[in-house]
Write a structure and sequence with these properties.
By secondary structure, the chain is of the alpha/beta class. 40% of the residues lie in helices and 19% in strands. β6, α8 and β7 form a beta-alpha-beta unit.
Length: 367
């Protein structure tokens, strides 16, 4: 993670994140029915507050509804981007942060954070091209990198038509859409371009990069909306956003040379390559450009970040109860939204090797 890049933009992200989270905490406290002097403990009993990645927002929203229906705490999750989530949990203004860009062990140690995965999903290119239907257009890593570099500027460029025989592509301009905020989805996307098109992609891999071309949208929601509104456009979003909005997705050529569609099965093929045990203690893992003929090449995990030293045992237990419930009972909801659930073997690692380090006054919150 590049902590030195664009300091003024990172400070702006942090300020926005903290403002949104402060609003969320105020809502949680006011909704508890308690006096102002006990608003913190009331929020503990009734509401878990999280903020961060937009990538898993549809899933966390569904899990929150289902968990509350069991009598568990309500979930107030703010979709403000991975960078905002990291800033919020570092500032201790939320119960948990969420990021699709995992932190390295050194960063976790500096901020005294624990990190663990909650789901795996796919980042998919989406287009708005007249006459082109879902899954009809095919791209590879080099083509995608050249489009986002600004080296390919029209849809009927010979390099694109060569891999799309029979597809009627217009001579119109390619309108590139990317994220404008500090984004884990961007981190996955640019890590893919860096890994799969190293001789072409030059802007690096991070939550924010110096985009050579294009317009920005905030969150997966903003990119999806911009692509839908802008003719001739291309963007990248987490698959649940594309599916729910019935957007036109692109087939991608994977590491084995096969063109694959974005599906739950192709995300599962990528997830099956994950060596979570080898990723301990940080659980830092990159899942892009994995081998296998059925593997989706732009996959990634979404992570939870929590403070190791919890200040309130009840609040910590309420939060951990939600994660435990999601691991054990949230699989069907995850699959329905085309996320890959975390398998039991990985949950066991999280519980035994990560959660033991989340404590109140030296005593593990989850036992």
């Amino acid at each position: 993670m590049n902590k030195t890049a664009r300091p003024w933009r990172l400070l702006l992200v942090a300020a926005i994140a903290l403002a949104l989270v402060a609003m969320a905490l105020g809502v949680a406290a006011c909704g508890s029915g308690s006096s102002s002097s006990s608003s913190s403990s009331a929020a503990t009993a009734d509401t878990i507050v999280g903020a961060g990645a937009s990538f898993p927002y549809p899933l966390y929203s569904k899990w929150g509804e289902e968990f509350a229906a069991t009598g568990g705490a309500k979930l107030n999750y703010q979709s403000i981007g991975s960078g905002g989530g990291i800033s919020a949990i570092t500032a201790k203004t939320v119960d948990f942060g969420a990021s699709d860009a995992p932190l390295q062990e050194a960063d976790l140690t500096t901020d005294n954070l624990a990190q663990f995965p909650m789901c795996v999903g796919g980042v998919v290119p989406v287009v708005n091209i007249e006459g082109v239907t879902d899954g009809q257009l095919k791209l590879n890593a080099d083509l995608l990198a050249k489009i986002y570099n600004g080296d390919i500027t029209t849809w009927n460029d010979p390099a694109i038509t060569a891999v799309n025989p029979g597809v009627n592509l217009p001579a119109s301009k390619i309108n590139v859409v990317h994220r404008s905020d500090s984004s884990g989805t961007t981190w996955i996307f640019t890590n893919y371009l860096t890994a799969a098109a190293p001789g072409v992609w030059t802007a690096g891999a991070d939550k924010e990069v110096p985009w050579p071309v294009g317009v920005g949208g905030k969150g997966n929601e903003g990119v999806a909306a911009s692509v839908q509104q802008l003719s001739g456009s291309i963007g990248y979003v987490e698959y649940a956003y594309a599916k729910q909005a019935k957007m036109v997705t692109v087939q991608m050529q994977n590491k084995d040379g096969a063109f694959v569609k974005a599906t739950l099965a192709s995300f599962e093929a990528a997830a099956s390559q994950a060596d979570w045990k080898g990723s301990l203690p940080s659980m830092y893992l990159v899942l892009v450009d994995q081998p296998g003929k059925t593997t989706w090449p732009i996959a990634g995990a979404s992570f939870i970040l929590v403070q190791k030293d919890q200040q309130d045992a009840a609040r910590g237990q309420a939060m951990m109860s939600f994660f435990d419930w999601a691991y054990k009972n949230g699989g069907e909801a995850a699959k329905a939204l085309d996320y890959v659930p975390i398998p039991k073997s990985v949950y066991d690692l999280v519980e035994s090797d990560v959660w033991k380090n989340v404590t109140v006054s030296g005593t593990p919150v989850w036992q």
